[in-house]
Each structure stands twice: as C-alpha cells, then as structure tokens.
Design a protein that fits this description.
single chain, Spore Coat Polysaccharide Biosynthesis Protein SpsA, Chain A
Length: about 325
C-alpha cells in the first residue's frame, strides 16, 4: 500500500442519509483517510448525530460551518485545502458513494507517478437513472483508465481538462504551486484547475477502477441552467478554454446516445434526447455570452443566483 497521507474534503448542504452512507463507506476503505473534513453550509441543518457517529471512525474528523452567503465552489474547497495538511486531498460531493472499499487506494496509487497532480474516479449511474443518463455516464466515464498530459490536447481537446470534484484527488504541493482553485467561481473549479495543471506540464490520471455511484435525472430546464453556468465559467477563463471548444464533444454525445437508444430498442426516446440536448446547448450558448444579457434574464437562466448576488456585492 502507498504511504501518501490523505484528507477527504466534503462540502455539504443540508445533508441527510447520503452523507451518512458516504462516511460509512469511507470508514471501511482499505486505505482509510487520515482526515475527513466537512465544510457545511447552514449549521442549523446539520444533523448532530453525524458528529457523534463518526468522530471515532477516522484519525481526525472535523466539521466546519459557513454561512450560505460565504459558499463558493472554488473558495470553499480552497479553504479546506488549507486545513488539510496531508499529501493528497480527495474532494467528494455528499451524494457520491464509493462502490467498494478500494476507492481511496486506487486513486492514491496514481500519484506514484510524480508528474500526476490530480486523479479522478469513475462515476456510475444509479439504478433509478434514465437511459440517457446511463449512456452519458458511460460516455464521460469509460471503463478504461488513462493518463492525460498536454500532449493529448490535439486528440482529446477539452476532455484533456476533464476532472470532476465529485470524486477527484489533488496533490497539495502542485495545487498550491499553481494557486489552487479559483475563488469566486460560479462552477467548474475542477476543470479550470485541471487546465492549469495540464498547461504547466503536469498530468491528470483517470482511474476507471476507482468507482462511485453518482448520477442525476435532470429536467431540460435544470440542464439549461447548469450549462448556462458552465458557459459562464468558460467565458470568465479564456486563458484555459479558448482554442478548446466544448461543442464538438456535446454533438458527439448526442449522436452516440441516439445510436445507443436505437440499439436498445427505444427509438421513441430520441425526441426527448433532442429536447434535452437543445436545452443544454441553449444554456451553454447563452452562458458564453452572458455579458451581453440583461441582469434579469441572467437570474432566470442561472442555477446559482446567490453567486450573482455575491458578484454584485464584490463590485
């Protein structure tokens, strides 16, 4: 077993049974985390029983509370990185559940290569997932591991930067060398940092055998709002995303999903796929051009209205 020390960092918001199950599964890992750190938004909604149940299951178990107005996708995780004080930090979301007891071991093994600065796991669709969601997970998280570097940009394009904080480990030394997660970022803090790592000669490992259950059945409007925020994040960081557009990957996913639905004997679901894909593209298109949109429309399109309020207060 490798000797890397590891913190698991989990931002939480009104957690329930999923967070408890995540912590139970982390406590059963072959490579047990040296520290589990929860950064919780809204203390009033955090069940006290979580602390009582898990304080003795890890060498260090910490819960910090922040106000909802202070939450930031990058800034909150950066705060956790500063507290961590371990070789590696595994960022997870409260609804990602390890499939087995080897998740942390397989992710941290990737860092035996000193050029690997981040490693992320495979996300599996749950039993209640829609057919299109199941294919999307297969498309984005295939069953073959790989190591990505800037040499892959020509072939993989924007997928070179893919690295999801649903389940992604970061080498703290490399993290701080490049300034860490962007603060005051609406979304996509993981890909922005991954892009910086790739541009600076580091590598990113995709570990297909490090698996978590994580999926969502979003409506068309929810997809539009998420992709709007994605477009905003890319528009705000042209130093990362200019020259590596996302549209081609989106079209490839739509075509692949349509073909898969036909092969599965469900061509009637293609109309729903087209509608949902149209919502995704509309959100992304508008998000990339958000600076030309009126503020009232932006509030209706975003999934993160509080972020825009914070942005106004900063200005």
């Amino acid at each position: 077993m490798n000797t890397f020390t590891l913190t698991v960092l989990i931002p939480s918001y009104r957690p329930g049974k999923e967070l408890k199950e995540l912590l139970r599964r982390l406590s059963r890992q072959k490579k047990r985390p040296d520290r589990v750190l929860i950064l919780n938004t809204e203390e009033a909604y955090f069940p006290s029983g979580i602390i009582d149940e898990f304080r003795d299951r890890f060498p260090v178990f910490s819960v910090f509370h922040i106000e909802k107005s202070q939450f930031d996708h990058g800034g909150t995780r950066h705060l956790g990185m500063q507290f961590a004080n371990t070789d590696l930090v595994l960022c997870m979301t409260q609804d990602a559940l390890p499939k087995d007891c080897y998740l942390t071991e397989r992710l941290t093994d990737a860092f035996a290569d000193p050029e690997v600065a981040a490693a992320y796991g495979r996300q599996l669709a749950g039993k209640d997932s829609s057919m299109t969601e199941r294919y999307t997970r297969q498309f984005n998280y295939p069953d073959r591991s790989c190591i990505k570097s800037r040499n892959d940009l020509a072939g993989l394009g924007i997928r070179t930067f893919f690295c999801s904080d649903v389940c992604a480990a970061w080498r703290r030394e490399s993290y701080f060398a490049l300034g860490g997660f962007e603060r005051h970022v609406i979304f996509n803090e993981d890909m922005i940092l991954a892009g910086k790592l790739i541009q600076n000669g580091f590598k990113i490992a995709y570990c297909a055998d490090a698996e978590v259950w994580h999926s969502h059945n979003y409506s068309g409007m929810q997809q539009l709002r998420r992709n709007f925020d994605l477009g905003v994040s890319q528009a705000d960081h042209p130093e990362i995303f200019e020259g590596v557009p996302s549209e081609g990957e989106g079209l490839k996913l739509v075509k692949g999903t349509a073909g898969w639905l036909v092969r599965q004997g469900h061509p009637e679901k293609i109309l729903s796929l087209i509608v949902t894909s149209g919502c995704k593209y509309a959100g992304y298109f508008l998000g990339r051009r958000y600076r030309s949109l009126p503020g009232g429309l932006i509030r209706r399109l975003t999934a993160s209205p509080s972020w825009w309020e914070q942005k106004e207060n900063r200005n």
